[in-house]
Amino acid sequence: SSAIGRGVADSPVPSTGATAAAAAAACEQPFSVVLMDMAMPVMGGVEATQKIRAQGFSLPIVAMTANASDKDRDECAAAGMNGFLSKPVLRDQLARALLAALEEYDMDHQQQQQRQGTSNSAGSATSS
Predict the structure, then answer these.
(1) If both were cysteines, with which of 34, 38, 105, 114 could 45 make a disulfide (CB 3.0 to 4.6 Å apart)?
(2) Is the pTM of this model over 0.85?
């Protein structure tokens, strides 16, 4: 079995958007990526993603939906999702979407650290 398969098998699978948002907030060990189903009962994937983002989580979220319209794609991006997959999902599509979301997250995280390092060093240079 693959590393991705083992990671997915060991991960909780919330059945509603509300439990997905709560799981992200309560998770002691952060997820590497979230695969967010768009059509869940109680709270859909867009609203769950908005709640996760409002809690300050920047982890990659990849939408999974049976709807593949540009409107759906735009709605997912506006909610803060990093990727979009339409069902049924083929293994290669899943792998590409996960890698792209993780690479984007890593680049954003590195840029944020560089900006913080630049502002910290600028502050220390003016204080001496």
Answers:
(1) 38
(2) no
